[in-house]
User: Fold this.
Amino acid sequence: QVQLVESGGGLVQAGGSLRLSCAISGRTSTTYPMAWFRQATVKEREFVGVITWDGDNAYYVDSVKGRFTISRDNAKNTVYLQMNRLKPEDTAVYYCAAGWKVSNEARGYDYWGQGTQVTVSS
Assistant:
């Protein structure tokens, strides 16, 4: 089993930055591809980006490319989502997820955190 706990959400003005963290515990002997998803009110869960197990590659949805960066520190069992130039449409609950392979679909991930709220004011 793997447990994921997100932190770092909050309220920020448009144009500002936030860094989310996802702490991984449990079966950390296996290094998983790690993804970030988000879900706004009355919307489906949306893929944000994913990083490979070794951190060498990351892939993003077009709407966040150039603004968001995923990184990981496997020694600390932590994954990060750096969000810059935030927009009101980035407002959502952000979830980290662990899976066995890189995917942009929620069904590709077996383990999920509880989510952290990000609110961007205009």
